[in-house]
Amino acid sequence: MPADEVLTIGRIGVDLYPEQIGVPLPEVRTFAKFLGGSPTNVAVAAARLGRRSAVITRTGADPFGDYLHRALCAFGVDDRFVTPVGGLPTPITFCEIFPPDNFPLYFYRHPKAPDLEIRPDELDLGAIAAAEIFWVTGTGLSQEPSRGATLAALRHRGRGGITVFDLDYRPMFWGSRKEASGFYAEALPLVTVAVGNLDECETAVGVRDPGEALAALHDAGVDLAVVKQGPRGVLASRRSTGESVEVPPVPVRVVNGLGAGDAFGGALCHGLLAGWDLTTVMRFGNAAGALVASRLACADAMPTESEVRHLMEAGDHA
Known about the structure:
Layout: E1 6-9, E2 13-18, E3 31-36, H1 38-48, E4 53-60, H2 63-75, E5 77-78, E6 82-85, E7 92-95, E8 105-108, H3 125-130, E9 133-137, H4 146-157, E10 162-166, H5 177-187, E11 193-197, H6 198-205, H7 210-219, E12 224-228, E13 234-238, E14 243-247, H8 260-274, H9 278-293, H10 305-316
Parallel strand pairs: 1-4, 1-9, 2-7, 4-5, 4-6, 9-10, 10-11, 11-12
Antiparallel strand pairs: 2-3, 7-8, 12-13, 13-14
């Protein structure tokens, strides 16, 4: 079997999104069911762009877990590293949709999410070392044994290939920002790429100013640092080449902003594997994220390369 082009590790679950947009959750009548979980969505996004992708994660031994296996296979994502955990339910996440910029999330991951039960001794370290891109997230560091597994995988990989840390700071999964910062500091020297918004950068390196965050990420050992600035677009720099770019967002009518960052992540992987220059990678990522923001779902909404290029061309001629 050829090595994975994109291998992610971490969160998975079932997303239940209201079909009544702009309606508070107590008044919603019907929901649509989707595959969810940030690193899983990144694997789906990469597969939609034609990359061989797989995910390391765990589900409950229940019908929702069966659904997630079927969904992964339907998206073309290898599920050979997705295993069940007895006694823990597959997580469910509800959201409310208030466009253009309010999308509250409600995580049901109790008593513990199976994806936090990824264990170091169960990892296929050969596959992790061989993957062209290995993608980890901050949530994977939030509890043991997932924390130990994530750090063990990074240490074994030894910064080989492209190793991405999606900073992914979600306060509800941590005791405090200070706790998260300590483990982020442990992971940063083990990766070559870091991606995060301003709040996540503050957690990782203690500063919110975009330029200072880039510098601090480089000082921590990261070669390619990507800072998402919301309406100001994306700022990125690569220490090894001296490249630095700021790319504005692509304007779209936002339906659901959830998943846009994961689409950006899959597009980032695609562009890095293709060897594109940094500006092209960031523009492609922004366009992929914009397309998902204009759609209801996350995983189901991930675009193809032709769709992304069409939006980029439309923007160029606007």
